[in-house]
Structures are given as structure tokens and as C-alpha cells.
């Protein structure tokens, strides 16, 4: 047995040198890795930003239109049952071939109304040629008191960002939401002319953190909106339990009508730091969430809270103190509407005589015709529609409405009103 033992010992000793060398090399590498931070191994005390997912999620830079002096507006115009004719009228009053439009008749309206509206607009030569108007086919059920209006607005905003058929849906600068009971008080040439002078990160949104009575009546109650899961409209119902005011973000409230910059809309859709989703989940159980969701998002986001212009660009006549809904406007209100310098007003009854007066004296548009602008290349002979053909869409012919709107914007951006009235 001894020869075998000595032979085994001799074999084992042959591996001692390589084993010792390997151990020494491993020890050296371990020392190097724990004492010298190599370029491709970031140290734990200063991690590389690329390791954090938030640094990879950011808004798309608005570079595609950086050299375009004229902005584009993306409109959402919403209505419900029996609103299709009013929706068409508002669209024609707002129409410009540079802009983008989404029309939403909510699910309470029959499918035939949506089909007829889409077919009628497709038959218009200028609208058909520009291809910039879409009617939502799979409509949402919208109840103003619950979160369904916010959901519908986000749905339209996402569609405008995504685009369709290579149309470049993200090729716009501001998103404006209106209803079938709104109406413009300036032409689109007026509006585009004035907005061409503005920084494109501004957000026109009426807001305040002084929520007052709304804390008890809207923030603390918990409601369920049947519009989220039913096919027919029904009023919200209340949960007996109440909740405390959130501490992770501050609540803001204001008007449901706004003009939002594309970066803010993109942030609201993608929500790369999760704030928009968190706020959306909170407002899904909030009375009149359209009057708080976007306001709370923009005022709690560091990169957007200093971009707000505290105005909703509307003339609205309220009771004092305000009730749930404003007054319907008539011819008696026309002088006050114009004197407000606002580009939009609400609410109007469909086909109220004041709309005909606005068409004739402010917009200069004929019945069932788009509001004229520098882009109109058709003839006016024999009462023909001059806007049946598209000419140079960059040619603007601003008028008195531009003077009024510029006066309003200059006041809103003044040192006395701009920064002092931002998110606080």
C-alpha cells in the first residue's frame, strides 16, 4: 500500500503550484474590484443615471416643428345625444386646415348620429382634402360629475399623439378641449397669429389650491361612477366611508376647459414618473374630477408647475356664488363676451340667435361654411363657399379678434399676473 500512498501524494503536489497561482490571482482581482472603481463598474455611492428607469423615460423633444413659426392646435370637441348638428357647427366655426380635430359624441348618442356626422364632414371638399378631422367611432359614456369626462379627454389626447395613417398626430403644439355648447369669439387666423408669438410650453389652465368647501363636499367623499361600467347614464352613488385629503400631492381645482401644451399632454398620457397615474386613480372617485385632475397634475410636477397661465380662455357667466352650471348666453351677453377679449365662450343653446350674430359680425362666416381665413382659395361668386378649396395654409389674415386676444394674453403674461398667479 505504501507505494500507492507515495504516488498519490506525488500527484497531489503537482497541482499545488497552479492552485496557489490561481488563488493569488483571484485574491488580487477581488482586491482590485473592491478598492478601484473601474469605468464599467459604477461605484455604489454614485450610480450611473442609466441604471434608473426614470432617466430612460422622458417626453419626446418637440424638434419636428422647431423651425415652424406657426403653431398647430389639436381640438377635442365633445357632445352627447342630439348634439351632432351643434358639433358640426362648432367644428366649421373652428376649422383651419393646419389644425387637428377629434369629435366625440358620447355613447348616449346613437351610432347613426356618429356615422351621419362623419359622412357629412367627409363630403366637405376642404375637410376631405386636409384629412384633419376624425369622429370617435367607439364612443365613451360621459358623465360630468364622475371621472368619465377625464377618461374621454385622455382617450382623445392619446389618439392625437399617436396619429393615424401616417398623419403625424403628434405634430401639434396645444390641446384645447371644448363642448358642443362652446363657440369661438375669434377666427383661427386670429388665434394662430397670437399664439405664434408665445412660448409653446405655456399651459392655459384656471387653477387654485384654495379648494374651500370642495374639500368636504368633493375631496373627502368617495363616489362610484356607473358610467365606467354601464351602458346607460346614471347618477354617481356615494360610499358611506370618507377619506382624508392626500399628503403625497396637493389638490388643485379650477375650470374644466383649458389649453394644454403638447409636453404636458404627453406627460399626462405616458406618466413616466407615475404622478399622472396616481392622481388619476385618486380622481376616479372624486366629484367633478374634470375640475381638478389636470390642475393637480400640472401643479405637482416640478417641470410644469411654472408653465401655467391662470385662465381658461373662456367667457362664462356665473351666478354669485357660482352654481353647478353657468348661465346660457344670449344676444344680451354679446357685448360682455367681446369685451372680455376671450377667444371662446359658453354655454349656448343650439342655434341660439346669438350664434348667428357671432357668425355675421365676428367670424364673417356663411351658414354651414368654415370661418374664412387666408387659407381659403375658392371663389365667392354666386354665394359660393370661398373655403371649399385650400390654398396657402400658412397665410394668415388676422383681424380685430387678434387685437382683442393679444390684449388678453399680454395682460395674463404681465408681471402682475403671470408668476404671482401660478401654482402655490
UniProtKB/TrEMBL annotation:
InterPro entries: GLCAT14A/B/C, Glyco_trans_14. GO terms for cellular component: membrane. It is found in: Membrane. Its main location: membrane. Keywords: Glycoprotein, Glycosyltransferase, Membrane, Transferase. It holds the Pfam family Branch. One of its GO terms (molecular function) is glucuronosyltransferase activity. It is a single-pass type II membrane protein. PANTHER family: BETA-GLUCURONOSYLTRANSFERASE GLCAT14A, GLYCOSYLTRANSFERASE. This is BGGP Beta-1-3-galactosyl-O-glycosyl-glycoprotein. It comes from Brachypodium distachyon (Purple false brome).
Amino acid at each position: 500500500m505504501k507505494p500507492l500512498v507515495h504516488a498519490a501524494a506525488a500527484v497531489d503536489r503537482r497541482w499545488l503550484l497552479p492552485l496557489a497561482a490561481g488563488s493569488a490571482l483571484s485574491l488580487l482581482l477581488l482586491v482590485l474590484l473592491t478598492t478601484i472603481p473601474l469605468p464599467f463598474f459604477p461605484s455604489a455611492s454614485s450610480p450611473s443615471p442609466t441604471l434608473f428607469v426614470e432617466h430612460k423615460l422622458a417626453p419626446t423633444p418637440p424638434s419636428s416643428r422647431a423651425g415652424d413659426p406657426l403653431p398647430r392646435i389639436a381640438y377635442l370637441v365633445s357632445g352627447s345625444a342630439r348634439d351632432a348638428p351643434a358639433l358640426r357647427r362648432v367644428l366649421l366655426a373652428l376649422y383651419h386646415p393646419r389644425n387637428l380635430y377629434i369629435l366625440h359624441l358620447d355613447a348616449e348618442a346613437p351610432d347613426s348620429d356618429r356615422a351621419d356626422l362623419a359622412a357629412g364632414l367627409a363630403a366637405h371638399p376642404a375637410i376631405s382634402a386636409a384629412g384633419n378631422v376624425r369622429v370617435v367611432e367607439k364612443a365613451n359614456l360621459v358623465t360630468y360629475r364622475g371621472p368619465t369626462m377625464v377618461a374621454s379627454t385622455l382617450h382623445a389626447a392619446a389618439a392625437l399623439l399617436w396619429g393615424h395613417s401616417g398623419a403625424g398626430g403628434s405634430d401639434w403644439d396645444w390641446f384645447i378641449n371644448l363642448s358642443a355648447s362652446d363657440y369661438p369669439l375669434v377666427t383661427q387666423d386670429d388665434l394662430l397669429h397670437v399664439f405664434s408669438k408665445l412660448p409653446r410650453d405655456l399651459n392655459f389652465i384656471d387653477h387654485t389650491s384654495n379648494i374651500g368647501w370642495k374639500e368636504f363636499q368633493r375631496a373627502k367623499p368617495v363616489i362610484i361612477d356607473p358610467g365606467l361600467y354601464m351602458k346607460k347614464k346614471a347618477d354617481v352613488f356615494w360610499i358611506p366611508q370618507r377619506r382624508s385629503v392626500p399628503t403625497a400631492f396637493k389638490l388643485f381645482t379650477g375650470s374644466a376647459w383649458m389649453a394644454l401644451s403638447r409636453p404636458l399632454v404627453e406627460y399626462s398620457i405616458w406618466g413616466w414618473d407615475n404622478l399622472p397615474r396616481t392622481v388619476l386613480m385618486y380622481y376616479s372617485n372624486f366629484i367633478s374630477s374634470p375640475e381638478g385632475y389636470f390642475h393637480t397634475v400640472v401643479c405637482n410636477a416640478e417641470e410644469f408647475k411654472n408653465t401655467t397661465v391662470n385662465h381658461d380662455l373662456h367667457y362664462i357667466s356665473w351666478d354669485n356664488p357660482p352654481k353647478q352650471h353657468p348661465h346660457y348666453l344670449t344676444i344680451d351677453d354679446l357685448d360682455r363676451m367681446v369685451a372680455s377679449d376671450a377667444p371662446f365662450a359658453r354655454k349656448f343653446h343650439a342655434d341660439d340667435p346669438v350664434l348667428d350674430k357671432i357668425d355675421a359680425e365676428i367670424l364673417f362666416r356663411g351658414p354651414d361654411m368654415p370661418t374664412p381665413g387666408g387659407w381659403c382659395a375658392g371663389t365667392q361668386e354666386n354665394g359660393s363657399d370661398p373655403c371649399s378649396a385650400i390654398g396657402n395654409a400658412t397665410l394668415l389674415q388676422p383681424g380685430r379678434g387678434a387685437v382683442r386676444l393679444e390684449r388678453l394674453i399680454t395682460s395674463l403674461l404681465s408681471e402682475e399676473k403671470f408668476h404671482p398667479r401660478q401654482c402655490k
